[in-house]
Amino acid sequence: MAKKLIKKWFPAYESVRAHRALGLLGPRLRAADLWHLNRRSVAGAFAVGLFVAFLPIPLQMLLAATIAIVVRVNLPISVLLVWVSNPLTMPPIFYTAYTIGRWILDEPRRSFQVEMSLEWFAGDLLTIWKPLLTGSLLLAVAASLTGYIVIRLLWWFSVVERLKLRRARLHRRLVHSQQNPYARDRRPAADRDIRDNAPGRNGPPG
């Protein structure tokens, strides 16, 4: 169930392997454990992807893939989750991070506009980088921990529900077999005749 949900949430899962930006990592992308869908790998990938998504840096996909390779977690999910930070969400994310960082560092407020361009990184970012980076790191850590814990819990609930369904099916089969005596013994007829007519089974042989 959990694996089906992951593939439903991430329709571009298989396309990550062919992404040009990740070609720089070479044969490392072919490591089998980077594509596993298990509780540890997926929860770790959420932690990596969400952490990188909140960092105000370029080449987030490449950084997420590199970290995923180092810590051996699911690479496609790590890479796809950096798109939490996209042209639509970057302005509110960066503004929130800057506000938090400015409050922590007690710095005066500055007006700025987020643009993913070299001019912005060389201009506005240089004047607000300290509070922006401080707030971004806090948001990144919070998002990373939240994603990791939530996925671990959801995976655990998924396993518990699957076990409950399995037990319910077994219980229904048991009740059905008790209510239908003809369904209790499913041995082939020849085996039943041999075993039921064995010496001592139905009294002493005549």
UniProtKB/TrEMBL annotation:
Keywords from the named record: Membrane, Transmembrane, Transmembrane helix
Keyword Signal: no
Residue ranges, annotated region (Disordered): 179-206
Transmembrane segments: 137-157
Domain DUF2062: 25-162
Positions with biased composition (Basic and acidic residues): 183-198
PANTHER family: SLL0298 PROTEIN
Protein name: DUF2062 domain-containing protein
The organism of origin for this protein: Thioalkalivibrio nitratireducens (strain DSM 14787 / UNIQEM 213 / ALEN2)
Lineage: Bacteria, Pseudomonadati, Pseudomonadota, Gammaproteobacteria, Chromatiales
